[in-house]
Amino acid sequence: MSGAVLVAVAAAIGNLLQGWDNAIIAGAVLYIKREFKLESEPTIEGLIVAMSLIGATCITTCSGGISDWLGRRPMLIISSFLYFLSGLVMLWSPNVYILLLARLLDGFGVGLAVTLVPVYISETAPPEIRGLLNTLPQFTGSIGMFLSYCMVFGMSLMALPNWRLMLGVLSIPSLVYFALTVFFLPESPRWLVSKGRMSEAKKVLQRLRGREDVAGEMALLVEGLGVGGETSIEEYIIGPANEDIEDHDTSADKDRIKLYGPEEGLSWVARPVTGRSTLGLVSQHGSIANRSALGLVDPLVTLFGSVHEKLPETGSMRSTLFPHFGSMFSVGGNQARNEEWDEESVDREGEDYQSDGAGGDSDGNLQSPLISRQATSLEKDMVPTAHGSLSSLRHDSLMQANGGEQVGSMGIGGGWQLAWKWSEKEGQNGKKEGGFKRIYLHQEGVPGSRRGSLVSLPGADAPTDSEYVHAAALVSQPALYSKELMKQHLVGPALVHPAETAKGPSWNDLFEPGVKHALVVGVGIQILQQFSGINGVLYYTPQILEQAGVGVLLSNLGISSSSASLLISGITTLLMLPSIAVAMRLMDIAGRRSLLLTTIPVLITSLLILVIGSVVKIGNVVHAAISTISVVLYFCFFVMGFGPIPNILCAEIFPTRVRGICIAICALTFWICDIIVTYSLPVLLKSVGLAGVFGMYAVVCVISWVFVFLKVPETKGMPLEVITEFFSVGAKQVAAAKNN
């Protein structure tokens, strides 16, 4: 996974520049005021600081849609160029108006980086370490702030500090970032698949994962193109085909799904059962936690929780469900494996099949469906066509026909398995209608009274007892299912190439129940984060440390008040780094939801102590000590939870097709709330005082904890496509409950 890690580190440099910019202006504005004589012009002084916020807010309104159109990588390149250009203009700045323009350009770069870096990392990272990698922007941002404070502090000790040099230094790291975005960062594979550029997406995935076989994840990315659709929660018992799967609830043999191993003659069978899986029980009846909360807990939270309670202990990218299964695209015998997605040509009923993606934003020679079509009648066994590469699926492939049913199964990370099944039902005219169903399988926990835990596969160390897997499943239509093609008796899990159905995001997609549900979570947590008090505590920190005697100590060392303020801010930022490192470690172990529920109470306690310290008169030394400890605890636990997690969640919970637009909505909410909190703080301090402000922040943190408990699901270790499928299921359950 080193490829994905290096790409995430390079992308996170955009947030390092954002942190650098935030800190540098705090020090430079002290000297800008003197040169331009702005002591009597507080509005202009405020604009110099705020122009970056204004620029970020403006660019965010269109960044999501443009990134869905142009791609993630071009927007990061533009962001790095804007950083570089703004640094040069600030270095020149002959007057305050040019400086304001430079700050606006800088804000554009900040807005693009803050909005798109989490999305880019989420779309390139493997599920098992996605949380860790998406905490990198918070870490690098804090590093940028610390380095900036150190540089400004050092320059403030000079006889004539040069604020232009302070601001212009930004162009040096931004030039490094520009080079990385142009020459090192690949395009997001999910965006490439959404545009039908399968060959490029495959090469990027191979580079990111460090292996040749990426067929499973490629198929997953295609399935993630859908928005909405009917999804059901089912349950299967899976075992060797020659074993008797003992279960009185199993359906008839005609309903079974056969799974084939990589060697001829080795097969496995899955039979649907009812009323057993944790996931299924939760979806139908709700959980104990749900009922104990008087039905207030979102069913979606319970659904996600039921999965994580039974998550198999594995750090592998491959699923534990079928640990020895090869790829669905394996070629039998000793024939070399060939997964060239862009070099097939399949005839359809005697006509040359040409993909619509042959031009425009698709590869010029892309002329094949995603998974080769198999020319066969619905009533007959599948007979592979005589083509090379993907269509050379032999009898021992993972995709075979048995009694009208066939399935391909692949690990997609996080203990999940991707499969398809063929199903038929009676149509309105009495004729059988068939179609493929996509299945996301997840192994259920196996109680001790049951036999075995994993399918016993040849070559594995397995007990002699008969074994089977109890698996929950999300079953829905494939993303590229086409009824028109089914009339021609063509069979394949993905019947149409993505380039044929590729389309940009639609505003109508935002009103799909699962997307609306995710927007409520994303927008809600962004609002609560901004009003949880971080800006107020940052504002108050220098005063707290001054009371603790730090200012006096620095003064005795000959450091001026301005330099002391910068040094104190640098020390405060330095305290954040170890806590963020801990959060990076815990993000994929404890999980996002658990970290929030654990860290928010510490924020509440710290704020209440600050309120009490402001109201109750105690000794100066004791007050300074208690306040300092409270502030340090607040910072450390904020950056472990409420700091990085809102952006991580927002980058995970939206479908690929509308992810850019939705993340832009959440980011716009972030910037608007940031502006409101920043400029309302002085007013609130005058009207309700420091104790009142911290009291309000404590109330918001209490509301935040309740919101997280009721509405925010746990997404650790789950593929993005599975997360969005869960949101769709949960939203429809909520709607059904309201209707009933």
Automatic annotation (TrEMBL):
<dbReference type="InterPro" id="IPR005828">
    <property type="entry name" value="MFS_sugar_transport-like"/>
</dbReference>
<feature type="transmembrane region" description="Helical">
    <location>
        <begin position="98"/>
        <end position="121"/>
    </location>
</feature>
<dbReference type="GO" id="GO:0009705">
    <property type="term" value="C:plant-type vacuole membrane"/>
</dbReference>
<keyword id="KW-1133">Transmembrane helix</keyword>
<feature type="transmembrane region" description="Helical">
    <location>
        <begin position="561"/>
        <end position="583"/>
    </location>
</feature>
<feature type="transmembrane region" description="Helical">
    <location>
        <begin position="622"/>
        <end position="649"/>
    </location>
</feature>
<dbReference type="InterPro" id="IPR050814">
    <property type="entry name" value="Myo-inositol_Transporter"/>
</dbReference>
<feature type="transmembrane region" description="Helical">
    <location>
        <begin position="166"/>
        <end position="185"/>
    </location>
</feature>
<feature type="transmembrane region" description="Helical">
    <location>
        <begin position="661"/>
        <end position="681"/>
    </location>
</feature>
<dbReference type="InterPro" id="IPR036259">
    <property type="entry name" value="MFS_trans_sf"/>
</dbReference>
<feature type="transmembrane region" description="Helical">
    <location>
        <begin position="595"/>
        <end position="616"/>
    </location>
</feature>
<keyword id="KW-0813">Transport</keyword>
<protein>
    <submittedName>
        <fullName>Monosaccharide-sensing protein 2-like isoform X1</fullName>
    </submittedName>
</protein>
<feature type="region of interest" description="Disordered">
    <location>
        <begin position="333"/>
        <end position="368"/>
    </location>
</feature>
<keyword id="KW-0812">Transmembrane</keyword>
<keyword id="KW-0926">Vacuole</keyword>
<keyword id="KW-0597">Phosphoprotein</keyword>
<keyword id="KW-0472">Membrane</keyword>
<keyword id="KW-0762">Sugar transport</keyword>
<dbReference type="GO" id="GO:0022857">
    <property type="term" value="F:transmembrane transporter activity"/>
</dbReference>
<feature type="transmembrane region" description="Helical">
    <location>
        <begin position="43"/>
        <end position="62"/>
    </location>
</feature>
<dbReference type="InterPro" id="IPR005829">
    <property type="entry name" value="Sugar_transporter_CS"/>
</dbReference>
<dbReference type="InterPro" id="IPR020846">
    <property type="entry name" value="MFS_dom"/>
</dbReference>
<comment type="similarity">
    <text>Belongs to the major facilitator superfamily. Sugar transporter (TC 2.A.1.1) family.</text>
</comment>
<feature type="transmembrane region" description="Helical">
    <location>
        <begin position="74"/>
        <end position="92"/>
    </location>
</feature>
<feature type="domain" description="Major facilitator superfamily (MFS) profile">
    <location>
        <begin position="7"/>
        <end position="716"/>
    </location>
</feature>
<dbReference type="Pfam" id="PF00083">
    <property type="entry name" value="Sugar_tr"/>
</dbReference>
<feature type="compositionally biased region" description="Acidic residues">
    <location>
        <begin position="340"/>
        <end position="354"/>
    </location>
</feature>
<dbReference type="InterPro" id="IPR003663">
    <property type="entry name" value="Sugar/inositol_transpt"/>
</dbReference>
<feature type="transmembrane region" description="Helical">
    <location>
        <begin position="142"/>
        <end position="160"/>
    </location>
</feature>
<feature type="transmembrane region" description="Helical">
    <location>
        <begin position="687"/>
        <end position="710"/>
    </location>
</feature>
